[in-house]
Design brief:
Layout: H1 35-60, H2 62-79, E1 89-94, H3 96-100, H4 110-122, E2 127-130, H5 140-152, E3 157-161, H6 170-179, E4 185-187, E5 191-192, E6 199-202, H7 213-220, E7 231-232, E8 247-250, E9 266-271, E10 278-279, E11 290-291, H8 292-305, H9 314-333, H10 338-361, H11 370-402, H12 408-416, H13 418-421, E12 422-423, E13 426-427, E14 430-441, H14 444-450, H15 453-473, E15 477-482, E16 485-490, H16 499-529, E17 537-552, E18 557-562, H17 564-575, E19 587-592, H18 593-599, E20 607-615, E21 624-631
Parallel strand pairs: 1-8, 1-9, 2-3, 2-9, 3-4, 17-19
Antiparallel strand pairs: 5-6, 6-7, 10-11, 12-13, 14-16, 14-17, 15-16, 17-18, 19-21, 20-21
Helix pairs in contact: 1-2, 1-9, 1-11, 2-10, 4-5, 7-8, 9-11, 10-11, 15-16, 16-18
Length: 639
């Protein structure tokens, strides 16, 4: 290339990307970023975002909130630790057998209730709670008898009342208020979840300040500091699967019970009838339910024992969600195969469930699992997607930089080793040792003047296509074309770590240059037959240290070589005009001494080298020892 000023070596300076010396610092926009920091910030953001999203979702998305509560219910039912029957509480229940001998099923026989109150008081119970709503009259004499028994009992008797939201007629409410007037009272309204109607919380005081039946009984027992706000029920455990958590006696059997079974206990009297005052709770197996009076007993036991919310506090749940999100992100960053990620996605929540069961069975808190599991899944999925997007971006950048200019093995090596030289979706500036090849067509200006634009471009494309195939066949990377000039590198972007690898790259570069000369002989024969001009090429090859990295911005970037080695290869090609001898008939290859020292033993029999001497190349202060290669296998000679 004799005329165009863009040709490296022909003008006063080599192109910009080849200008800086290897000892100079890389340009500011090529300064290495901190991939560890950027990835760390990204991972932290994914962890925090996943945890916050999971915690918010389990509280504000109804199906997830229900799932969270239901999963907690299953944990309680399956793993609640065994506990002896509560020693301070007993239940006296009207069941199906109790009503078998009574004339009236509803309302409950007031005379029988009066007798039971008398028997319990005589047995020395601590207090009695009647979980039966007296909202309608029966026989006046029996009603009055029961009312007197409750008012005049030797122990406190608490009756239940109805809060304003209880659906009673005005007549029922007037009768209820008159019947329990003068008695300690408490409401028996149960707080049910709006989504699944399960009872998990207790409301200690109604809107008008009326205490609940368990709270009123706890006050009578002298329990201090009854909670004023709704609280989650801590269900009392069972001694075993067949024994109830509280002593339960049939109403009809109270008269024959030993007094010691009841003495000193707080007794709740209520009903246990199918379809009446039955509610879903965490203790309820599938399809079963818990009587309302038993729920009140659990709350009373919790108040008497001073137990609090059994669930892990929100701070602990948040910390667990963050931990699970962090584990999910870490697993994603580990780069596991997809099948292992899928297996981990299932096994980790299963392990969390097992751990939560073991912790609860050992007497620890109830660990909510939905938010941590969601955080785990969100962290794993978000980081996997981000890594996939980043991988696609890296692949797109590398394809933009190297597509069609490398062989398949080199492309695979570049992609396999991308983590060693990619940072922030662009090649990381790095110091490496490689071999640079610079080729140029002799007399290109004359050819440009002799050919029309269309045949010129077609002719040049044919030449460049053939040369690129040779470079890629020798595992080189074509970085750019400058007019007819070709810049290629052997040993980048994946840095070589051993001298053997560096020497092998030099051998491939020299082999490529020799093959380019041989291919040109065939091209010239074809062009001569087509009436197109024949040409020769000059090639400069040099091995040494380089700074390699991506130059450019968002719209355009190139993988560039910076430093003395790249400059020297360009100068060697230009110096070829000063050498009379030729490598082959159509080619003149000038190599630097480091390259020849690296390849001479490996290329014996294929080529030899003539010493050109130590020459002062343009732009260099020190003389460079250079060699002219002689292609011993070229059949066209060097004429």
């Amino acid at each position: 290339m004799d005329g165009p000023p863009a040709n490296p070596g022909e003008g006063p300076e080599a192109p910009g990307p080849l200008k800086p010396a290897v000892g100079d610092p890389p340009p500011a926009h090529l300064a290495p970023d901190r991939p560890g920091w950027s990835r760390g910030w990204l991972a932290g953001a994914v962890i925090l975002g996943s945890a916050l999203l999971a915690l918010a979702a389990t509280r504000w998305v109804p199906p997830l909130r229900t799932a969270d509560e239901s999963l907690g219910d299953r944990l309680i039912a399956a793993a609640a630790p065994a506990q002896p029957q509560h020693p301070a509480i007993a239940l006296v229940l009207f069941g199906e057998d109790s009503f078998a001998g009574l004339a009236c099923r509803s309302p409950v026989d007031r005379g029988m209730l009066a007798d039971i109150i008398g028997l319990l008081a005589a047995a020395g119970v601590r207090a009695i709670g009647i979980d039966v709503l007296f909202d309608q009259p029966t026989l006046p004499a029996l009603d009055e008898r029961l009312r007197r028994a409750m008012l005049n009992a030797a122990v406190p008797v608490v009756a239940i009342t109805a809060l304003d939201r209880t659906p009673l007629t005005e007549r029922q409410r007037r009768f209820l208020d008159g019947f329990i007037e003068g008695m300690p009272r408490g409401h028996a309204n149960l707080a049910k979840d709006r989504l699944d109607a399960a009872v998990r919380w207790h409301v200690p005081f109604g809107d008008d300040g009326t205490p609940s039946l368990p709270v009123q009984l706890a006050r009578l027992a002298g329990v201090p500091g009854v909670p004023a706000q709704p609280f989650r029920i801590d269900w009392h455990g069972r001694p075993d699967g067949s024994t109830a958590p509280f002593a339960i006696y049939p109403a009809e059997a109270v008269a024959v019970l030993p007094k010691s079974w009841l003495s000193g206990r707080m007794v709740l009297v209520g009903t246990a009838l199918a379809g009446i005052d039955q509610h879903r709770t965490p203790l309820s197996p599938a399809g079963a339910s818990t009587p309302g009076v038993e729920i009140e007993a659990h709350v009373l036991a919790q108040l008497l024992d001073g137990r609090s919310d059994p669930r892990l506090p929100f701070a602990g749940e948040a910390a667990l969600a963050l931990l699970m999100a962090a584990v999910g992100v870490a697993v994603a960053l580990a780069g596991l195969p997809l099948w292992l990620l899928a297996a981990a996605g299932l096994l980790v929540p299963a392990a969390a469930w097992t751990g939560a069961m073991a912790l609860l069975a050992a007497g620890g808190p109830l660990v909510p699992l939905v938010a941590p599991a969601l955080a785990w899944g969100a962290g794993l999925a978000a980081m996997t997607v981000q890594m996939s997007l980043r991988e696609r971006a890296d692949r797109r950048v590398m394809m933009q930089l190297f597509a069609n200019h490398v062989s398949q093995p080199v492309a695979e090596e570049i992609w396999r080793e991308r983590a060693t030289f990619m940072a922030g979706n662009r090649p990381r500036p790095q110091q490496l040792t490689a071999t640079v090849l610079f080729s140029d067509i002799e007399g290109f200006t004359t050819i440009c003047e002799a050919l029309e634009p269309e045949p010129l471009i077609r002719w040049l494309e044919g030449y460049l296509d053939a040369m690129v195939r040779i470079v890629t066949a020798h595992d080189g990377v074509v970085l750019r074309f400058v007019g007819d000039a070709i810049l290629a590198v052997f040993g980048a972007p994946v840095a070589r770590t051993t001298q053997t690898e560096i020497d092998a790259d030099a051998g491939r570069a020299v082999g490529c240059a020799l093959e380019m000369g041989r291919e040109l002989a065939a091209l010239n024969r074809r062009w001569q037959a087509e009436g197109l001009p024949r040409v020769g090429i000059r090639v400069g090859v040099h091995t040494g240290p380089l700074v390699a990295g991506s130059l450019g911005g968002l719209r355009h970037s190139e993988y560039s070589l910076l430093g003395d080695t790249a400059n020297t290869a360009a100068r060697l090609e230009a110096y070829g005009k000063m050498v009379d001898e030729r490598t082959s008939r159509h080619c003149r290859i000038i190599v630097g001494d480091p390259t020849w020292q690296a390849v001479q033993s490996a290329l014996q029999g294929r080529c030899t080298a003539l010493p050109v001497g130590e020459v002062a190349l343009k732009g260099k202060v020190k003389a460079v020892r250079i060699w002219l290669l002689i292609d011993d296998e070229n059949t066209d000679g060097r004429g």
